């Protein structure tokens, strides 16, 4: 039940009873201990150790040392009153000897780490949500083709079954993939993410094999952990054409196809969007889609995870002036936007985060309502939402981050608007619990509600953590 009580100065927006309040992290971004516990390299180890790929030459070797400090970190979560924690499992900890020939032996130390983390969470009254893949593909599989190979999808299904069998007695929700858009296009087309390839045909093949991997993992989790629920997390874009001209509308439709429909359509409806297939026909014939694949991919989902950070403004590029590429995904020569030569992402004015991402919470409401319309009745969770700002610990030992507090307040209000309009949203995970390794940006971008001093590993609650704790305690956001 949702109630809205307006007063002169503030409104109290209450969330449904039982709403999950969480924070999210990802293995490579927080764990560190890259060479411990029997772990072997992932594509992010290789990529981050390649000169020039990461700002400041940062790597995830140590990160937040969460691998050793997870007990303290869970205690922090408990102090904030979090009711859920979304973390990811690092595949190269679970089957470190995997090659295209097979998974190889399961590494008991890897499973033991995640099992202990799950136990610690449960003892603290925090519900674990497990992401099976947050971008750290075992390097040996990349060497055999990575996500351009069907074999990677098959092996991912087998790996998912192992994790679900080990944790499924205690973990109620498994998220197969985090943001396959990033894995495919940033990893294989623009190359700003691992494995750093710039090959459009490879990226589209990766799109399909990631979708297939999701389908195979869904079936695997159902077999190994019948009581658990299965989700997929997508970074859906709120695509806004600059004008209502037909050319801008066409630009928006193509970007929508590549970012939203190429994932939503197969998963929800069992087909690829015809316009995307046609628009990319000069890049690939999509012959990697085999008979039966779409049936596997459209296996019913229990939850759709939505990550939302920033709107996606587009316009038709007239070629009369230099192209603007303010899509928020790095200023690269290779574009992640396949077959979008005449589309540009105009530079935005107005408030931005430290990533340069425009702040507009309307998109949060819009993407949630879109899912509610396209998949009536499907439960939705906001699996990531948050902002980077250049925080510092003040002389008083506190971290004042008013911009993040406002960002969270506005985006929570936007989630509430979607709920009030009937979208079945059951939870919200702030990105992130801790400042961490922000991929190609390294440690320079701070997304945490908890500040991390990377020299000492000291954690300091930011004011946004205190704000979030208050929201959780009241199950209400005040705007
Ligand atoms: C998302 C990623 C997450 C983090 C945030 C800022 O795309 O899933 O790991 O990098 O962006």
UniProtKB/TrEMBL annotation:
Protein name from the UniProt record: Beta-glucosidase
InterPro entries, A to Z: GH (IPR017853), GH_1_N_CS (IPR033132), Glyco_hydro_1 (IPR001360), Glyco_hydro_1_beta-glucosidase (IPR017736)
One GO MF term: beta-glucosidase activity
Record key words, sorted: Carbohydrate metabolism, Cellulose degradation, Glycosidase, Hydrolase, Polysaccharide degradation
Catalytic activity: Hydrolysis of terminal, non-reducing beta-D-glucosyl residues with release of beta-D-glucose
Keyword Hydrolase set for record: yes
Assigned protein family: Belongs to the glycosyl hydrolase 1 family.
Keyword Hydrolase in annotation: yes
EC number, as in UniProt: 3.2.1.21
Enzyme class: hydrolase
Gene3D superfamilies: Glycosidases
Lineage top rank: taxon: Bacteria
